Structures are given as C-alpha cells and as structure tokens.
Amino acid sequence: MKAMQLTRPSFDGFRITQLDDPMPQRGEALIRMKAASLNFIDVAVATGAYPGPAFPLIPVADGAGEVVAVGPEVDTVAPGDRVAIHPKALWAAGRGSARNARAMRGVNLPGSLREYAIAAVDSLVRLPSFLSWEQAASLPITATTAWNALVTADIRPGSTVAVLGTGGASVFAIQLAKARGAKVIVTSSSDEKLARAKRLGADHLVNYRATPEWDREILAITDGAGVDLVLETAGGETFARSLNAVRHGGTVFTIGFLSGGKAEVDLMAIIVKSIRVQGNNTGSAQDLADAVAAIAACGIQPVVDKVYGLSGVREAYQTLAAGRSHFGKLAITLDFEA
C-alpha cells in the first residue's frame, strides 16, 4: 500500500512511500482510508514541539474510511461499514489513564495518511450516511472534545456557554451546545467569522479586538452572573479572563495553548467562585460514539472550511499553523490513486 510519511519534524519532510499491505488479526478490521483532518497536535508533531514521536512516521491522528475486511471474532462491524477511527487506540471507554491516553495515532502509532489502516474494532465508530468522508474525518478529536466539555459542565436547556475562537473544537461546541438547548457566546477577532458563527446558531458575538475586555462583555450579556462553561482554547493570555467570565460553580474547560502554555492563576478566583478547571486529552471511543450519536440525531453538518489533496498536505499544515484564516476544520482527501 501507499502511505505518506513524515521523515523529520519539518513541513518539508513529507514523502509518499510504499509499505506492506496490512492484514487484520483477531478483533481487528482493515479500513480503506478515505479522508483525514488536521488538529494542532499534528502541527506540533510536524514542528518537533510534541514529545515522543520517532521519525519517519505516518502522520495525522484523525481519519475515516470504509471497512473492507475483518479478522476472526469480529461481529460489530462488517465490510462496507463507514467508520471513524478513534485516535486513542487503547482507550475504548471509561476514565482516562496514563496507559490508554499515551498511545495515539499519528504520534507514536501510525496515523491516517495511508491507503489502508488496521484498527481494533472497539476503536471504530460507525458513521451516519449524510456525512461526507471529509466531514467524518473531522470528528474524532474535536467532536469528542467539544462533547466532553458540554457533558463535564452538565450543559442543558437554558445553560450558557462561551466559546473562544472558531477552530474545529469551538465550532463543534457551538453546534452541539445549541443541540442541547444552550445559549452560546462566541469570541473572535474576525467579524466575518463571527457572522458565520451566528449562522450556526450563536446567540451573542464578541469581537475581542474591538472589545479587549471581552470577559466583562460576557458578564454584561449574562447580567453579571457569568457563563456555565468557558471552552478555553487559547491558553496563557486568556485564562484569567476565562476565570472572570465563568459563573460561580461553573467550568473552565481548557484544551488549547495557542497563546502560550503558562498562565498566572488567581487561586482566590477559583476558590471563592468554586470554579471547576478541567483539562482534557480528547476522550474515549465511547465518548466519540456519543458525540456522533448526537450529530446523527440532530442532523448536524460538521464545518469543513477547506479540503486538500495529498499534494496539498504541506499547505494544509501551514494554514493550520498560521491559525488565522480557517473556520472549523481542514481536511485531506486521501487521493493516493490520483
């Protein structure tokens, strides 16, 4: 089979190579890969900013495809099934642990940029038929993360959620929060992106360039109470404002470090307001299945901003690394036969 390898931590290190065809063993399925989608962990791997990878490797954590064969004792999927592959190969369900969170496709296991993949069937999630392959590939990390944020904060009808930015997890959080009956506040530096968020159902929009003290604006919108959940995607520069914007007993769900991984924390704010600060390392395959079930039930269309072919992989990585122009997800069609 053909695969794209990353030979070194550099955007110039991609090459297509020929590898042995894989065969499924007991409890496994063989998937013909159709599409992949990028996350910031993929950029971190490709720039040497993420510890652990050994080069060359097959990159990209998230992908989707069609089951073409199964190994012995497999009855939960069958040839012809459309599936997303959960990137945490050992985390089928339950709580995270050092063991099940460590093994990750595209980092220390082969990733999605290949013609065929082998996966244990308990890491596969069947897909609704209305999703394109590129939309399906956008689900594993970001939909799981957004869903877990909403579950952790017990978001329900009447809750209020603040979403920082309009990247993949943020856009899924808008869509899934609205499906759960919540009001959503979105921050961005782009009025055009805010308008797109409005079309997805966002109730209130805050341009943080025009309103640098966006936390005070969120408090004003909520009549001083604060929001039930802040999806904290930016990191060091925004964390203090997220603590200010959340209500007493609310949740700051922190998933990103775009503005830096270190922050000065006012412990008194956390203590006095009884704030729950929750980190996240994606989630289990069951969490992904729950998110997909919600997407299927509500007919949610994942937002894929741009689709690249294999010849555009380098450009896709550069676009995501720049972090300014896209809205939602960037996907890669696995056109090895082109």
CATH topology of the largest domain: Quinone Oxidoreductase, Chain A, domain 1
**CATH architecture label of the largest domain:** Alpha-Beta Complex
Number of discrete domains: 2
Number of helices: 11
Question: What general form does the structure show?
Answer: globular
Helical/strand content category: alpha/beta
Order of helices and strands: EEEHEEHEEHHEHEHEHEHEHEHEHE
| Beta-strand proportion | 25-35%
Radius of gyration: 20 Å
CATH class identity of the largest domain: Alpha Beta
Kindly describe this structure:
There is one protein chain. The protein is α/β, with parallel strands linked by helices and 338 residues long. The chain folds into two domains: 170 residues, Alpha-Beta Complex (Quinone Oxidoreductase, Chain A, domain 1); 137 residues, Rossmann fold, CATH 3.40.50.720. It has eleven helices and 15 strands. Strands 3, 4, 5, 6, 7, 14 and 15 form a seven-stranded mixed β-sheet that branches. Strands 10-9-8-11-12-13 form a six-stranded parallel β-sheet, with helices on both faces. The longest helix is centred in the last third of the chain and has 14 residues.
